[in-house]
Amino acid sequence: MAVNVENKHAVGGLKINLGCGGMRIPGTIGVDQVNVGVTEVIADLEAPALPFRAGTVAAIHVYHVLEHVDFVRLMDEFHRVLKPGGLLHIRVPHASSFSFWDDPTHIRPFTSVTFDYWIPGYHQNYGFTSHFRILSKRINFLGNADVNSYKILPWLTNSIRWLLDTAANAHIRLCERLWARYVGGFGELRFLLEKV
Is residue 123 part of a domain? Predict the structure, then answer.
């Protein structure tokens, strides 16, 4: 059953914060399986379909949710509900992050090439029919770096974090393969994908 919330954010299209938890993103509709205060639409990500009509969503924000679910099927759902050129904002813990492995509800790790499998013509073809263009990817030493920062000696620790982020993002795959584990792992990957 499709939820009729399109009129709420008619300018530019519907924007949803999927798996919102208690985090409000201005201009988005909070969607979660439980009502935690900012939830406006109750939806189970394990259900066969998201409660939105095909081609009605301009942007999906999914922050630290995909590691908890079988996201491969969800990629088709994201593709179905997104408008052509719609944007998919993803944040997930990096596979080298100790916090990924600490949480018993995490079922799948992510690396910088996880979403490459949905690029049209990618050399590994698993028959995915949904396709996305990767507009950007970024690795962060500290998860949720826009919110979290080091409180002890911030002039030193945040400078080191900035240096690690800058070096890692110069060549993410090289960082993953050669040196991420030697600095204790990286906390978060961010992706911006566009529906093609």
Answer: yes
